Amino acid sequence: MTQPVSKANMLKELILGSSSLTWMLIAIFAMATILLFQFASYKKIGLALEKSFAILYIFISPVLTQPPFNYLHFINLKDPEGGILKLLPYFFYPWVLLILLSRVKDFSSNFIQFFAKLLIMNSFFLLYTLLPLLSTLWSLVPEETLRAGLAFSGFTVFGCYIAAQYKWEDLSRFWRWGYTALGLASFVMKPPGSGDFVGLTLSKNSLGGVLALCTAFWYLHYSQGAKTQKERWIALGMMLFSFYLVRANKSGSALVITIILIIAVSSLNFLKNLSFQWAFTAIICFLVFSIIMTVFVVDNLEDIIVGGLGKDLTLTGRTEFWPQLMDAVNQRPWFGYGYDGFFQQDKLGSATPAYFIYTPNGFQPKNPHNGGIGILLAFGWPGLILMMTSLLLNLAYAVRYLSRSTLEEAGIPICFLVSIIISNITEGYIIDIGNPWLSYAMLTVRLAIDNANNSSNSSTSNPQRRSLARTVH
After folding, report:
1. Three-state secondary structure along 430-472?
2. What is the pLDDT of residues 72-82, one digit of tens each?
3. Whether the model pTM is above 0.85
4. What whole-number distance in Å separates Cα of residue 221 and Cα of residue 242?
5. Are 252 and 294 in contact (CB under 8 A)?
6. Rounded to whole angstroms, how far apart are CA atoms 469 and 473?
7. Distance of alpha carbon 305 from alpha carbon 369, whole angstroms
8. Disulfide engineering: 178 pairs with which of 58, 386, 452, 473, CB 3.0-4.6 Å?
9. How far apart are CA 68 and CA 66, in angstroms?
């Protein structure tokens, strides 16, 4: 019996099978590149093209399954097999840099300034981003780790570039429309059915996390950012549609996170009126309560989850293999097993400790299902300390930024941090090359720059400090 041919293979055979068609497409692509390069030199057109790329980058960040978007993700660099289309990132991103060369030149003139602010405000983040490549030195599978580290670094660099180029108002728009586009495309191309609604993503939890943030961001724009009645109606409609997709997704954890984020957004006015110490304490208490509530609801109240949330338990089996993973961590506590170096059962077999990790019912995990454990397995305790310190700094900066900006701008990093912390209790998203890490990298860069600018402005505008500086001088 003949095997069915995928649409991607049919397209590849059609293009590569005809030399005249191939050369014609190359000529069209070359002409389009020249025209785009020329047009992008104009400031408004270059800005519009860069913003379009930013939305596209956020759109594809969760790792999609639909061509051609699945071939544009940096994660393809991890796998050398899979045909010529998996090499597309090697050509696509240099092409983007070429088209946006005028914008990149403008950014390069301020790069040292941006980098210095990030280094001063959150050096722990910068040190952490070096670990995926450095861990090649001690990985069980150095070639795999090197490829994964290069993919991680490229993915992070483009996210940091976008965050450094734009302020929260623009970034908020990018995230809202990027996530909404993913939800709409998933609804149209792979609509909800009787089973889990995964859309264009790899899993229901991946899509559910995006839709939860999308719902919260539209609610934030509706309640705090919309300037006209028309904007408010659009925001309300998008929020309700996103929430409908969360329900159709049938992920209990996504629904719980959505509710928690809505509560967080509704609390922004209250937090803004508190002092920094009390606001930070309130955020920490809220996070602790949210984590306890999430674990308690998702793991214990089966009747609520099956009847109310419409899905089976999402923590089933995790607590059975987490102790085994921690035993593996204790065998290499200082360095771990390298980035993407532990769960290599398919390549190493019994040569990796992951080969011997099973639940009593025979399930063998292929990922840690916990962000902290994932970091420990990859980089050891130093890696986890760097990430946790960076995370606490970001929480402090987000709370401080709350008193110095509009609620919509300040609400974005708070929503992201709440979502990232809670979701990584039951999933290992923060260690993956996907949307949660991209969001964390972008908010870290933006918070560092904004808080550095605010600190500099407050120092120069404080007359007591200026007089003291003159006295010391």
Report:
1. HHCCCHHHHHHHHHHHHHHHHHHHHHHHHHHHCHHHHHHHHHH
2. 999 999 887 76
3. yes
4. 14
5. no
6. 6
7. 19
8. 58
9. 6
DSSP 307: I
- Burial classification of residue 143, based on how many CB atoms lie within 10 Å of its CB (0-12 exposed, 13-18 middle, 19 or more buried): exposed
Would you say residue 309 has pLDDT above 90?
A: no
Phi, psi of 167 (to 5 degrees): -90, 180
Residue 124: pLDDT band (50, 70, 90) is very high
- The pLDDT of 297-312, averaged and rounded, is 48
| Residue 349, number of CB atoms within 10 A of its CB | 9
Q: How far apart are CA 441 and CA 424, in angstroms?
A: 15
Average per-residue pLDDT in the chain?
85
Residue reference for tokens 């995964």: 198
* Cβ-based neighbours of 99, under 8 Å, separated by 6 or more: 33, 36, 37, 40, 49
Give the pair of three-digit tokens for residue 106: 């403008």
Kindly indicate the confidence band of residue 36, based on its pLDDT and cuts at 50, 70 and 90: confident
Measured CA to CA, the distance from residue 284 to residue 295 in angstroms comes to 17
Structure tokens at 194: 């009787």
Residue recorded with tokens 């305790």:
381
CA 126 to chain centre: 16
Compute the distance between CA of residue 254 and CA of residue 305 in angstroms, rounded to an integer: 12
Question: Measured between alpha carbons, how far is 75 from 66 in angstroms, rounded to an integer?
Answer: 14
Give the model's pLDDT for residue 312. Answer: 40
In three-state secondary structure terms, 385 is helix
Which residues are bridge partners to 64 per DSSP?
201
Interacting residues of 234 by C-beta distance below 8 A, sequence separation 6+: 226
Q: Which residue, 251, 240, 361, 363, is CA-closest to 297?
A: 251
Q: Which ranges of 301-370 would DSSP assign to H, the alpha helix?
A: 302-303, 318-331, 345-348
Report how far residue 88's alpha carbon sits from residue 183's, in angstroms, rounded to the nearest whole number: 24
DSSP state letter for 138? T
Under 8 Å between Cβ of 328 and 377: yes
- The contacts of residue 47 (CB under 8 Å, 6+ apart) are 103
Q: What is the pLDDT, as a whole number, of residue 99?
A: 93
